[in-house]
Structure formats: C-alpha cells, structure tokens
Amino acid sequence: MSPHRPPQVSVILPVRDGQRWLREAVDSVLAQTLSDLELLVIDDGSTDATPAILDEARARDPRVVVLRQSREGLVAALNLGLARARAPLIARLDADDIALPERLARQRDYLQAHPDVVLLGGWAEIIDAQGASSGRQMRPSPDGLRETLTKKSPFIHPTVMFRTDAARRIGGYRAAFEAGEDYDFWLRLADIGAIAILPEVLIRYREHGGSVTRTRELRQIYSARLAKLASAARSHGGPDPSAILTAPPDWHDDDPGNFERDSSRLFRMLELADPSLARTAPASAIDLAAITSQRSTLTAGERKFAQAALLNLLRERRDLPVSRARLIALLLWLGPAKAMKKLIRTK
User: What's the family (predicted)?
Assistant: First the structure.
C-alpha cells in the first residue's frame, strides 16, 4: 500500500486495557486477504501492556496506525478513528474479537456491487475466553431490516462496514446516546441510504467474564428508547429532537427537556430493579403511572426491568403508597406466567 494512496478499507479498533486478546484481534486484521487496508487502533488511556503491544505491531507493519487519547470513552475513540480514516470504507472490530480472513474482502465486494448500501452487517461465531467455539452463532436476519431497526438493532457492531462519507455526513457517533451510540448511528445512517446484512460469518465474537452491569444495561435501554423516538420524529419530517443533547441525559433531572421527559419518568421507576434503590426510594418516587402510561411502547428489556422493580417493591417495602394488589396486577400484566413464578418464590 502506497503511503500516498488511500487504502480500500480503514479498520477502526478502539481499546482500553485490552492486553489479553489484543494481539489476536490485530493479527486477524493484518492477515486479511484484502491487504490494502489501514488499521486505526485508538488507545483510550490504557494502563496495562496495551501500549507496548501496539508499539510492537506498528513497528512490524506500517499499516497499523496508533492513536491515543486520555480515557475519553468509546464515542470519542470511534469519532477519532472516523476523523482520521483515509479509506472510503470503514470496518469495525473490537479488541477481544477475531476477524475471519475474508471478512473485509467479502464486505468490500458487496458494497462495490450495491452502491446504494451505506451500512452492511454480518454474522458472528461465538467463542469463549480461550477462543473455543461455543457452538452458537449470531445470525440476524437480512430480511425486513428497516422494520426490525425501528424496534431494535439488527446489527452486531464489530461486524459492520459502512461508507466513510455517509458516516461523516450524519456527524458520526453521538455521546448523548451512551451505551446505545451504535443503535443511534445505525438509525441515522438508514435515514440517508440502504442497509443490509451479509448472511455470512465474518468474525469470531468473544463472550467472557466482563459482564454488563445492571446500571449499564439500563442506560443502554434508555439510550435505545431515545434513539427510536428521535428516529420517529425525523421520519415524520420534523427536526431531530435529540440534536440539542450534548451529553447523556440524567433521568433524575428535575427539569428534563420535553424530548426525554416521559422516558426519564419511566426510567426512574425501572431503576428500582436494584433492590437497594427500591428499599430506600421515597414513597413519592413510586410512580406506577410512569409504567402504565408507556404500556404500548415497552420493549422486552423495559418489561424485564419493570418486573424486577415491582417485585423488589413487594419484597422490600411496607410503606407502599399504592395497594399491593395493584402492584401484583401490574406485575401480572407485564408477564403473567413468569411474574407468577417469581411472586410465588417471594412468599
């Protein structure tokens, strides 16, 4: 690859303290059958051996470009990579995953054959911490993508390839959608072009002990709700109501904006899925109407948190501002069979 000619593909790989699997991830990119690439690794303030691993990779292969920032987070890392990418196509990979050898070539070929597609995903094989296959695959359906996207993300982030100019045109990733920045990104790309999934296994996706905390999962679900609301507003020809957000909204804000007001009210209730919060929340904070007013729009994840919150209130509280019968009725409405089993176990 000539240093003066842009590569065909730029691979963006953010990492923080990723020494355990980073070499495998980097080597899987450098061993691609499509060799005309650059690998942009954004080190988000690592304090382990990550910087040394990256220096060694850069020394042995000039296609590796190391960018460093001081623990500014994933969105900042992704946008730094997007700003520095020289190729017309960008692929994503995480520091604990492995790209299969023909991954980039297969996606490049598809996008060359389908110039209207701005975002292309793929399938993944699931592996464990040691790299052994679990026998499972993540296979999002390539059919009905737009309808699916209005409800949830059909894309596996480290499998995607997208057009650089399209990503820059929509302003890249947005920090306001913390833990759900990818879903907001897909929705905005879909506003300006076609989307697709290549029905082939492109990466080996590692599942390991770094489990998602309840707080982060709730934030992810909150960001997804806001992203869907913003997308719906845009689809009806209105301005993007989330454009004014420069940081993740705080659902405890005493004066939230009109855009996030109802969602914030709902998530103040959903966070009572944490038993300690359910135990100490003031009676005035127990707002069942926040859940019932959103009945028609609750996602599976939101229902799960709502069930846990209601169960915690039944277990932990004696000073409820509503009757236990009303709590039980709402719990059963959220998921009758499952709720009843949980309720029986609490007695």
Answer: Belongs to the glycosyltransferase 2 family.
